[in-house]
Automatic annotation (TrEMBL):
It comes from the Bacteria. This is RrF2 family transcriptional regulator. Signal peptide: none annotated. It holds the Pfam family Rrf2. Gene3D superfamilies: Winged helix-like DNA-binding domain superfamily/Winged helix DNA-binding domain.
Length: 163
């Protein structure tokens, strides 16, 4: 199981949007430059975040993106689902139905695949955990763990880019 790097970039960029004043937005160019990646790639990620209602797109020369909801209302799972889509990680192919006993007609009673049930339960536990981790929590955690100068420099970078 692996999430794309788009999830990581999305979470980092969304944290940068938390401190943006509500009447301002942050441009995709600035977000991409700060992260060291292509604008095209980040635009695709932000298109998905916008479609999911996590960010709002502001048109115009000074346009960009801002959070569409409060950081308390945006969970890690919201971001994962927006970027990766709703498809389950485990894709049961019902291979048991092709097994020897089913082919020979010895076992015809319908049954649930125990493997699928376990995998779906594990995914649900992971989703629930990620639903409990919000952007607000991440912001507080970064405030607590990162050197204050890094946080200040980050905020200055995005304020400067909007002037």
């Amino acid at each position: 199981m692996q999430y794309s790097v788009g999830v990581e970039y999305a979470l980092h960029c969304l944290v940068y949007l938390i401190d943006a004043p509500s009447e301002e937005s942050v441009g995709i160019k600035d977000l991409a430059e700060f992260q060291g990646l292509s604008e095209t790639f980040l635009s695709k990620v932000f298109g998905k975040l916008s479609k999911a209602g996590i960010v709002s797109s502001i048109p115009g020369v000074k346009g960009g993106y801002k959070l569409a909801k409060s950081p308390e209302d945006i969970s890690f799972w919201d971001v994962v689902e927006a970027v990766e889509g709703p498809k389950p990680i485990f894709q049961c192919k019902n291979i048991k139905d092709n097994g020897y006993l089913y082919r020979e007609g010895c076992c015809s009673a319908p049954s649930f695949c125990t493997i699928n049930l376990v995998m779906l339960e594990a995914e649900e536990k992971m989703r629930n955990y990620l639903r409990g981790q919000t952007l607000a929590w991440l912001n507080e955690e970064l405030e607590r763990t990162l050197p204050k100068q890094i946080r200040e420099d980050t905020r200055k970078y995005f304020r400067k880019s909007n002037i």
